[in-house]
Design goal:
The complex is a heterodimer of chains A (291) and B (321).
Chain A: H1 2-33, H2 40-56, H3 61-84, H4 92-114, E1 130-132, E2 135-137, H5 139-161, H6 163-173, H7 175-180, H8 185-207, H9 218-231, H10 237-257, H11 263-277
Chain B: H1 4-19, H2 24-49, H3 58-75, H4 79-102, H5 106-126, H6 128-131, E1 137-138, E2 144-145, E3 148-149, H7 153-175, H8 178-188, H9 190-195, H10 200-226, E4 228-229, H11 236-249, H12 254-271, H13 278-292, H14 297-314, H15 317-320
Antiparallel strand pairs in B: 1-4, 2-3
Helix pairs in contact in B: 1-7, 2-7, 2-10, 2-11, 2-12, 3-4, 3-5, 3-10, 4-10, 7-10, 8-10, 11-12
Classes of the chains: A mainly alpha (291), B mainly alpha (321).
Chain lengths: 291, 321
C-alpha cells in the first residue's frame, strides 16, 4: 500500500511539474498584461509537435528541442503583436475570446501541418526504469523534475535579481507608473509572451516522450496549467508552481486510489473547493473593487 | 414599439419555410440555429446583463438533454414530464451552485464555471450505467405534446422556433423588469449596486438559474429532436461556442445574442466545406471580430448604421432646421 502511494506520488510530482511550468507561463502573461492566455496549452503542443517533426527531419534531439522552443517563442511574439496589442483595453471577456480564438487558430495550423495522428519523442536517456525504494522512476521523469527545478529557479532569479525582471514586475504593479519611470511597457509585454511561450514549449518537449502528442494535446494541459495558476492565486508565479505540484499529486492519487476515469473531475473538484473557500486562490492577494 | 424587433423576427421565422419549403438550410440548419438562439439568449442574461462569465454552460444544456433521454428511455416517463424534471434538476443545481461560485470575479469565475463544465462532462462519459458512456444513449422517443408527436424536419422547425421566440420574448420582458434593472446595476459596479440597496447575490443567482433553465429546456428539445444524446454535444468546445455566440452578436442585447447564435450556426455550416481549414478560419474569425468589433457584430453594426444616419441628417441642414 505504502509503495503504491509512493509510486503515485512520483507520477504526480512529474505531471505536476509540467502543470507548474504551464501555470508559470499563465502567471507571467497575466502579470504583464492582465490577460489570461488560453492559448498557453497550444505553446506546449507546438513545442512537442515541432520537436518531433524536426527530429524526424534529421536534426539531433538537442538541436530539435532548441529550434522548437525558439519557434514557439516566435509564435508567442506574433500572438502578442497581432492579437493582444491591437485589442489593448478590451474587457476580460473579450480577451478570453481572443486568446481562445488564437488557441483554435494554432490548433488549426497544427492540424494542417501534422494531421490528426499521434506522435511521440524517444526518451532523452533511455527507458530503463530506475528502482527507488519500492517505486520505479523513468529516467524521463528525472529529466522533467530537473528541468522544472532549473527553470523555476531561473525565473525566480530573473525577477529577484535582474533589472529586466524588475521592470517586468513594475509593469504588473502599475503600467502607467512603469511607463513614467521610463520602462518600455510594449517591449516588456512582448518579453512576457515570448518567455511564457518558451516555458510552455519546454514543458511540451519534456512530456513528449511520456505521453502521445497530437494537435489537440494542448487543450487539457492548458486547462490544468490555468488551474495551477488559479489555485496558486493568479499572478503569483511561485504560487502557480505550488498549485501545479499540488494538482498533479492530487490527480495521481485520485487516479490511483479512486478511479482513473474520474481523474480530471477530481482535479477540477479540488480547484472548485479551493475557490469556494479561498476565492482568490491559496496564495493570492485580496482585491477591493473601486466604485 | 418596444417589441417591434420581436415581431419582425417572428415574421421572418414564419415566412422562411413558406418561401423555401423543404430547403435543408432553412428547416434543418434553421432548427439548430433556433436551439442556439435559446441557449445564447439565456446565457446573455447572465453574461450580458449580470456581467458574469460562464465557460461551463454546456453542462446545463447536457443536463436537460440527459434528463429527457434517461427518464424517457430507461423509466418510460412521458416526454413533457421528463422535460419538467430536467428543468427542475438544472434549476436546483444552478441555485445550489450560484452562491459560492458567483462570489468569484473575473478569471476566477471563468475557472470555476469551466471546472464545473468539465466535471459534468466527465460524469457523462464515466457513469456508463446511466448515461451510456462515450457511446451515448440512442432511441429517445419523439416529443409528445399532449397527444401530438412531433416528427419530421418541418414540424421540428416549428416547435423549436416557437420555443426560440418564447425565449426571446421572455428575455426582452425580463430585461425591462426590476430584476433586469438590478442585473444591469450589478454589471455596472457590483459594489455601487449594493450601496443602492440591490441584493446583488440574489440578482446574480436569479440570472444564473434562469439561464440554466433556458439551457436545460433547449437540451430537452435537442434530445428529442436528435433521438440521441452523447457527451460530445456538451463538452468544453460547446461551452466556448455558446460564449462566442453571445459575444459575437454583442453583449447585453437580446437580439444581439440571437443574431450571434444564428451567425455562428451558419458559419459552422459554411466552414464544413473547407474541411481541414475549418479550425484555422474559425479561430482567425473569432480573433478578428473581437479585435475589430469588440461590441459584437449586431451592436457594432447597428451603431455604425445609426452614426451613418445622423451624419446624413446633419449634412442636410434645411431638414434639421
Amino acid at each position: 500500500m505504502f509503495e503504491q502511494v509512493f509510486q503515485f506520488l512520483v507520477t504526480g510530482i512529474t505531471v505536476g511539474s509540467l502543470y507548474a511550468l504551464v501555470g508559470l507561463g499563465f502567471a507571467l502573461i497575466y502579470n504583464a498584461s492582465d490577460v489570461v492566455n488560453f492559448a498557453q496549452g497550444e505553446f506546449v503542443m507546438l513545442g512537442a509537435m515541432a520537436a518531433i517533426a524536426l527530429l524526424s527531419a534529421g536534426l539531433p534531439l538537442p538541436l530539435a528541442a532548441v529550434v522548437a522552443t525558439l519557434l514557439a517563442v516566435g509564435v508567442g511574439l506574433l500572438l502578442e503583436r497581432f492579437a493582444i496589442e491591437p485589442a489593448a483595453g478590451a474587457s476580460v471577456v473579450a480577451t478570453i475570446i481572443i486568446t481562445i480564438g488564437a488557441a483554435i487558430f494554432l490548433r488549426g495550423i497544427a492540424l494542417l501541418l501534422w494531421g490528426k495522428d499521434f506522435h511521440t519523442l524517444p526518451p532523452f536517456s533511455g527507458d530503463a526504469p530506475i528502482r527507488l525504494g519500492g517505486a520505479t522512476v523513468l529516467p524521463q521523469s528525472l529529466w522533467v523534475l530537473a528541468a522544472t527545478g532549473v527553470l523555476v529557479a531561473l525565473v525566480r532569479a530573473f525577477f529577484d535579481r535582474t533589472l529586466l525582471g524588475k521592470a517586468l514586475l513594475a509593469c504588473s504593479f502599475n503600467r502607467t507608473a512603469a511607463q513614467a519611470v521610463g520602462i518600455n511597457v510594449k517591449v516588456m509585454l512582448r518579453l512576457a509572451y515570448g518567455l511564457s511561450a518558451g516555458l510552455g514549449a519546454v514543458a511540451g518537449i519534456l512530456i513528449a516522450p511520456i505521453t502521445f502528442s497530437s494537435y489537440e494535446a494542448g487543450v487539457m494541459l492548458g486547462l490544468k496549467g490555468f488551474s495551477a495558476a488559479i489555485v496558486g492565486g493568479i499572478g503569483n508565479p511561485m504560487g502557480a508552481v505550488a498549485g501545479g505540484l499540488l494538482l498533479g499529486v492530487l490527480e495521481a492519487l485520485g487516479a490511483g486510489l479512486v478511479s482513473s476515469g474520474y481523474k480530471d473531475a477530481i482535479a477540477f473538484l479540488f480547484v472548485l473547493m479551493v475557490l469556494f473557500f479561498e476565492p482568490t486562490g491559496l496564495f493570492g492577494h485580496k482585491v477591493a473593487e473601486r466604485v | 414599439m418596444r417589441l417591434a424587433g420581436f415581431y419582425a423576427f417572428a415574421a421572418t421565422v414564419a415566412l422562411l419555410p413558406a418561401l423555401f419549403p423543404d430547403n435543408y438550410f432553412v428547416v434543418v440548419v434553421g432548427a439548430s440555429a433556433g436551439l442556439n438562439v435559446i441557449l445564447a439568449v439565456g446565457l446573455n442574461l447572465l453574461m450580458g446583463y449580470a456581467g458574469q462569465i460562464s465557460l461551463g454552460h454546456a453542462a446545463f444544456f447536457g443536463l436537460g438533454a440527459y434528463a429527457s433521454a434517461i427518464l424517457t428511455t430507461r423509466f418510460g416517463w412521458p416526454s413533457l414530464l421528463a422535460l419538467a424534471a430536467g428543468l427542475i434538476a438544472a434549476g436546483l443545481l444552478a441555485w445550489a451552485f450560484a452562491r459560492p461560485i458567483l462570489r468569484l470575479r473575473g478569471h476566477y469565475l471563468a475557472m470555476a464555471t469551466l471546472g464545473f463544465g468539465v466535471i459534468v462532462h466527465v460524469i457523462m462519459v464515466q457513469a456508463t450505467g446511466w448515461t451510456g458512456g462515450p457511446d451515448g444513449l440512442a432511441g429517445v422517443p419523439p416529443l409528445d405534446l399532449f397527444g401530438w408527436e412531433v416528427s419530421g424536419d418541418l414540424q421540428w422547425y416549428g416547435v423549436i422556433m416557437a420555443a426560440a421566440l418564447l425565449a426571446v420574448w421572455l428575455s426582452l420582458n425580463l430585461v425591462d423588469s426590476p430584476v433586469g434593472r438590478a442585473l444591469r446595476a450589478v454589471h455596472g459596479s457590483e459594489f455601487a449596486a449594493q450601496m443602492m440597496g440591490v441584493d446583488t447575490a440574489r440578482a446574480k443567482t436569479q440570472a444564473f438559474v434562469v439561464s440554466a433553465l433556458f439551457a436545460a429546456f433547449a437540451g430537452s428539445l435537442f434530445a428529442h429532436q436528435q433521438a440521441f444524446v452523447s457527451p460530445d454535444s456538451f463538452d468544453l468546445t460547446v461551452s466556448v461556442e455558446l460564449v462566442t455566440m453571445v459575444v459575437l452578436g454583442g453583449l447585453a442585447s437580446t437580439f444581439g445574442a440571437a443574431c450571434g447564435a444564428i451567425a455562428l450556426t451558419l458559419l459552422q455550416q459554411a466552414l464544413v466545406v473547407f474541411e481541414d481549414y475549418e479550425m484555422l478560419i474559425h479561430g482567425a474569425l473569432l480573433m478578428a471580430v473581437m479585435i475589430f468589433l469588440p461590441q459584437g457584430l449586431f451592436v457594432g453594426l447597428t451603431q455604425a448604421a445609426r452614426r451613418l444616419g445622423s451624419a446624413l441628417v446633419r449634412s442636410r441642414p434645411s431638414v434639421a432646421a
